[in-house]
Design a protein that fits this description.
Blueprint lengths: L7 H9 L1 E4 L12 E8 L2 E7 L18 E7 L5 E9 L17 E5 L2 E8 L4 H4 L4 E7 L7 E2 L10 E7 L5 E7 L1 E7 L11 E2 L13 E5 L2 E11 L1 E9 L7 E7 L12 E5 L2 E8 L11 E7 L20 E2 L11 E2 L4 E5 L9 E5 L5 E8 L7 E7 L4 E7 L5 E8 L6 E6 L7 E8 L6 E8 L1
Parallel strand pairs: 21-25
Antiparallel strand pairs: 1-5, 2-3, 3-4, 4-5, 6-7, 7-8, 8-9, 10-11, 11-12, 12-13, 14-15, 15-16, 16-17, 18-19, 19-20, 22-25, 23-24, 24-31, 25-30, 26-29, 26-31, 27-28, 27-30
Bound molecules: beta-L-arabinofuranose.
Length: 450
């Protein structure tokens, strides 16, 4: 048979970009990712995370954070994310110790058409820069890179978790942490400090604070930071009328992880009139919390400018298209009994999750699915059931409109079951999937409409 040749341009596109498709939480599904710095550049959201990898013999420190490079991801709809590939790597930065595997939480900002990527790491030259972390910059003409690292780290900075904020008057500030949170003005070149370093006071004194992220809204400067008061970090915030404080501690943005992921690290953006919190959790690595994954949820403010606490969801953000694979295991709500979520393949967590229905009436609710305007005629369910069983798919509640009834035949392998849609309603709907009978078990990977 004649082998088909892929056009060289298409091959190049595949090398540099990976479309990650569907986005519920976690939003990055092809690798571990942590410490997300989300930024709006033009009409896209860019996410600059740390890239957790697992330490192996001679590569990083066992049972600890291990990172050797950074990728950047972007999306124009918060659903379809593109991995633009590696933008900076430890062995290509002149000042970084090449076997330190310590490319921790970064940030990126735009000024006058140039993109400045700030990242912490361990320097080679401890005589010049001291022991421990310092912070460097890499510069690009595009948010997706390539970024060219500066030869030396920023003078006068010792610590991790850089964050940059540019005020309305054009003054840029660099923040970072080293148990406490520090801040200083940056010169217009964005590469050098332009003031004394200030320890930002009036923040909690008990326990570690790190990962500062500053933004301004309606004249209020928000200093937001993860804080370990008792073993696990929670996201907190303080407010001020000045970018360098003094700040007044206001409360919690997100409670500590109920499953014990030690760190959290976040950023906050406004995109198309909605505010979002990007953060991380160890979704793909439930037994090791140094292999984390980026998540995002909506965030809102009270009339007095205080932040409403964000309850983490699996559903995440964005509108899912009915015509794509809808991962109902990333549910908005779930019945108390008879529905569980498990990895599809216990040997490869990156294959994602499945929903297991095991009781009559067990259900999941999956919000904000766009059915478009053109009638969709068929529903496809990727399912596995050794007992066989019947699923109902409804909109408008678990007793709402029945849009399909899907008989899942007995099988020991995954199958795509196709049935006609009984009733089509256009536009954005919440979806409900239920098991009809008792003594049956049905597993669902995804559903999709054609
Ligand atoms: O990712 C390594 C470190 O863990 C970050 O720098 C901290 O903010 C914490 O998330």
């Amino acid at each position: 048979m004649k082998k088909q040749k892929t056009h060289w341009l298409l091959q190049l596109v595949f090398i540099f970009f990976t479309f990650l498709g569907i986005a519920q939480n976690p939003i990055i599904r092809n690798q571990y990712s942590a410490d997300p710095s989300a930024r709006v550049f033009g009409d896209r959201v860019y996410v600059y995370p740390s890239h957790d990898i697992l330490a192996t013999e001679g590569k990083g420190r066992k049972d600890w954070f291990c990172m050797e490079d950074y990728h950047v991801f972007s999306s124009d709809n918060l659903i379809d994310w593109t991995d633009h590939g590696i933008i900076v790597q430890q062995n290509k930065v002149p000042w970084v110790k090449t076997d330190s595997y310590s490319m921790w939480a970064p940030d990126c900002i735009e000024r006058n058409g140039k993109y400045y990527f700030y990242f912490p790491s361990i320097p080679k030259d401890t005589i010049a820069y001291g022991k421990g972390f310092t912070i460097g910059v890499a510069v690009s003409d595009k948010p997706s890179g390539p970024f060219i690292p500066e030869s030396n780290p920023i003078k006068g900075v010792k610590g991790i978790d850089p964050n940059v904020f540019i005020d309305k008057d054009g003054q840029a500030y660099l923040y970072w942490s080293s148990r406490d949170i520090f801040g200083a003005k940056l010169k217009k070149n964005m590469l050098e400090l332009d003031s004394e370093v200030k320890t930002l006071g009036n923040l909690p004194t008990k326990g570690l604070k790190e990962g500062p992220y500053v933004f301004e809204r309606n004249g209020i400067y928000y200093m937001t930071y993860p804080h370990v008061e008792n073993k696990i970090e929670r996201l907190e915030y303080a407010m001020s009328d000045n970018p360098l404080g003094p700040f007044k501690v206001m409360g919690t943005i997100m409670d500590k992880s109920p499953t014990g992921c030690w760190t959290n690290h976040h950023s906050i953006i406004e995109f198309k009139n909605q505010w979002y919190l990007f953060y991380h959790h160890n979704d793909y690595s439930p037994t090791f919390d140094k292999a984390r994954s980026v998540r995002a949820d909506s965030l809102s403010f009270n009339p007095d400018g205080t932040i409403t606490k964000v309850i983490p969801t699996l559903r995440g953000i964005g509108v899912s298209s009915a015509a794509k694979e809808i991962q109902i295991d990333r549910y908005s709500k779930i019945s108390e009994k008879g529905t569980t979520i498990a990895f599809v393949d216990a040997l490869d967590n990156f294959k994602g999750w499945k929903t297991v229905f095991s009781k009559s009436g067990a259900w999941v609710q999956y919000n904000t699915v766009d059915f478009g305007e053109k009638p969709l005629k068929t529903v496809v369910v990727k399912a596995l059931s050794t007992s066989g069983g019947t699923l109902e798919i409804r909109t408008k509640g678990i007793n709402g409109n029945l849009i399909a009834e899907v008989k899942i035949p007995v099988s020991t392998s995954w199958q795509d079951i196709k049935v006609p849609v009984i009733m089509f309603k256009e536009g954005i709907q919440n979806l409900y999937v239920l098991l009809k009978e008792n003594n049956k078990q049905v597993e669902v990977d995804w559903i999709s409409f054609k």
